[in-house]
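Sequence in, structure out. First:
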Amino acid sequence: MKTATLHSSSPQQTLALATALARVLKGGEIVLLRGPIGAGKTVFVKGVAQALGLKSSPTSASFSLMKKYHNKKTVLFHIDLFRLEGEEVLNLGFEEMLEDEHAIILAEWPGPIERMLPADRLEMNFVLEQGDARTLELSAFGPVSCRLLEALCLAAPL
């Protein structure tokens, strides 16, 4: 496991970090987003989708649980498991998402799927600070997620 701590002082910096991540996404990556409501998880997802050239802009998936965004090159699943518990996640089709080696999965509130996850994943914990500031605690589990973590670290503001 490799870890890093990054800081964002504004939504614009969070979007810049999302853009940096999107530049190295190839498909098959899983990114787990944790943090309280309003910490910037959905802002980050929007930044990734925009940088990938997806026409639709993600919104909070809390009420729809899962949204799929795609173009000719990319499939992005944005899942938000805030309201789910335990076995309810089986109805979401998460296993099928994992089988798509070209799909990018960004999961907010990932608790219910943790036991189903492959070992290689990037975990991001968004910590609220004063005002718009955020601390992002990153943990990479495997070579693919380590590559993602390194890209985020290179893009982080000094």
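Second:
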Amino acid sequence: MKKFQSRSFMRSALYALNGLRLAFKSERNFRKHLVIAFVILSAALFLRVNVTEFCLLIFANAQVLVCELFNSVFEYIVDAYYKGRWAKLAKLAKDIAAGAVLFSAIISVLIASLIFAQKFYTIYCNNFSF
């Protein structure tokens, strides 16, 4: 067995949960994205979106959170490698990783906007038809 390989599924799951806890405690943007995801999914329940739309919203929000986690990991690795020294390649790599988070957030907003716009339009037409 390799030196850092876990011996059980439960231990692996505990390590993973610890990683999520650390991300929640140390990464402000992860917490922000988590709150936004909670608000979006709560609004979806309130607006009674169908199962497919709800799954799309879950997937879009999860994509943003996963990108944020990978961005954090990437930044820690780059910082550890360069030991706090400034380097142009490190900056470029970190900027690209942050761009991936931004891109996934924009796509998530687009998906939520399309789903919610359709719901609001339906509510408006049903309540204010002439």
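Remark: The domain at 27-127 is CATH 1.10.287.3610 (Helix Hairpins).
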